[in-house]
Design brief:
6 helices, FAD/NAD(P)-binding domain, 2 domains, binds flavin-adenine dinucleotide, 5-stranded antiparallel sheet, alpha+beta
Length: 204
């Protein structure tokens, strides 16, 4: 990029030119070199390294029989995160974040997850699921996990990541949130509106 000019080049060689761009990828995508931005200031490089989302691992497990009742079980031992079943539905959702994600991932790998699930939902004990789908957000290189809370000593990083470059490159997404609110969907959208406002101002 240079002031007033952006060229985006994909790995397949597709090229797009623009007068400005909004970067919305999670910062680790930039920190780990999956998206390269020319002349990225050192402060922004450091912010991209600091702003790593927490771990997240989810599974959708379908049983042959529907759940007898609607429940959300929060595993008090931090092993499975939230387990959700809905009366009349055959699917059970496991949504594990932070340390629970690592434990759920390991339990899945070691074929222990269904046994732990029976502790949360006794009606699944001894029942063989019909199917299971896993979404390993922590291992997804394009997402990297869930919720970019700045780590200890890194409260400066979200604002640094949000700083526009030369009135040409703008930055949005949950990682730009900082202390403004929780780094979740609504704050990601608020960051998008902020970046759009900055961009419109720059174009004017
Ligand atoms: C399991 C889970 C549960 C969640 N639950 C909730 C909830 O209940 N409520 C809530 O508010 N929030 C929730 N969140 C958080 C919410 O999903 C995020 O805060 C929000 O999606 C962040 O939006 P974003 O635009 O910043 O980033 P993302 O949604 O991560 O979007 C970034 C996009 O960039 C793409 N990308 C990455 N690299 C490249 C590249 N090089 N080129 C092109 N594209 C690229 C990615 O594929 C992705 O689509 C949850 C997240 C997870 C993982």
């Amino acid at each position: 990029w240079s002031p007033g000019r952006v060229r985006a080049v994909t790995a397949a060689g597709h090229v797009a030119d623009a007068v400005a761009a909004v970067v919305t990828v999670p910062p680790p995508v930039v920190a780990d070199g999956r998206l390269a931005i020319n002349d990225l200031p050192v402060r922004k490089q450091a912010a991209a390294h600091e702003l790593r989302p927490g771990d997240a691992w989810c599974a959708l497990i379908t049983y042959p029989e529907p759940a007898p009742e609607s429940v959300v079980v929060f595993d008090p031992e931090g092993r499975l995160g939230f387990v959700t079943a809905t009366a009349g539905r055959r699917e059970v959702v496991v949504m594990a974040k932070a340390e629970a994600a690592g434990r759920a991932r390991a339990a899945w790998r070691d074929n222990a997850l269904l046994r732990q699930l029976a502790g949360a939902l006794p009606w699944t004990r001894g029942v063989e699921p019909e199917s299971a789908r896993v979404a390993d957000w922590g291992a997804d290189p394009w997402a990297g996990g869930a919720y970019t809370y700045p780590g200890v000593g890194a409260l400066w990083a979200p604002a640094a990541w949000a700083e526009p470059m030369g009135g040409t490159l703008f930055f949005a997404g949950e990682a730009t949130t900082g202390l403004a609110g929780p780094p979740m969907a609504h704050m990601a959208m608020a960051g998008g509106e902020r970046a759009a406002t900055e961009l419109i101002g720059a174009l004017r």
